[in-house]
């Protein structure tokens, strides 16, 4: 029986394709970004702008498509990830090897398993405090908080709400803006 060879971060960095990530030791191509995915990602980052603009320990680094090295065989590229500036005082020039304080994945059709099963287990192992999932097609946001080593749902919200969602509950987020209008059926 042949042993399964797991790809490493070094092998990921050698890939000529920029649209890949390392999940469970496998270099996988990221799905094509569809308009409602891109809009939800951009609108979420824009809504969180007040935190991103703050200097000092009360501020956040909120990044899109952030590649994070968690383990030698795990380097996903998160749709959105945030670090408190008190933990990550400056951004590195290369990959980030400090787990974020918050991750948000925009669930893509055909990639639900990765976003709802594989990534949360990885984040739990590395004690990422908050994990959000956004379903643009369903116009829904589900927020999770780490509690005793496991994620617990703390909010399930739709586009008709303005809500305060941890860890950004200092301000009310316009979920109608984040979740945009409903996509039409199609490719």
Automatic annotation (TrEMBL):
Q: Which domain of life is it from?
A: Bacteria
| InterPro entries found in the cross-reference section | Nuclease_put_TT1808 (IPR012296), Restrct_endonuc-II-like (IPR011335), Uma2 (IPR008538)
The Putative restriction endonuclease domain extends over 12-174
Q: Which Pfam families does the annotation name?
A: Uma2
User: Per its record, how is this protein called by name?
Assistant: Putative restriction endonuclease domain-containing protein
The organism is Halochromatium glycolicum
């Amino acid at each position: 029986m042949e042993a399964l060879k797991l790809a490493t971060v070094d092998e990921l960095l050698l890939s000529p394709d920029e649209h890949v990530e390392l999940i469970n030791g496998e270099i996988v191509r990221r799905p094509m970004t569809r308009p409602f995915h891109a809009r939800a990602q951009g609108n979420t980052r824009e809504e969180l702008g007040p935190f991103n603009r703050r200097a000092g320990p009360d501020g956040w680094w909120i990044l899109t498509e952030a590649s994070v090295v968690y383990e030698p065989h795990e380097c996903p590229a998160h749709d959105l990830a945030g670090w408190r500036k008190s933990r990550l005082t400056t951004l590195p020039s290369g990959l980030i090897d400090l787990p974020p304080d918050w991750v948000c994945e925009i669930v893509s059709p055909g990639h639900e398993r990765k976003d709802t099963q594989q990534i949360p287990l990885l984040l739990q192992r590395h004690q990422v405090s908050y994990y959000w999932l956004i379903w643009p097609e369903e116009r829904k946001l589900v927020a999770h908080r780490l509690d005793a080593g496991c994620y617990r749902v703390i909010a399930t919200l739709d586009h008709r709400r303005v809500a305060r969602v941890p860890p950004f509950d200092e301000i009310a987020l316009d979920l109608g803006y984040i979740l945009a209008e409903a996509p039409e059926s199609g490719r």
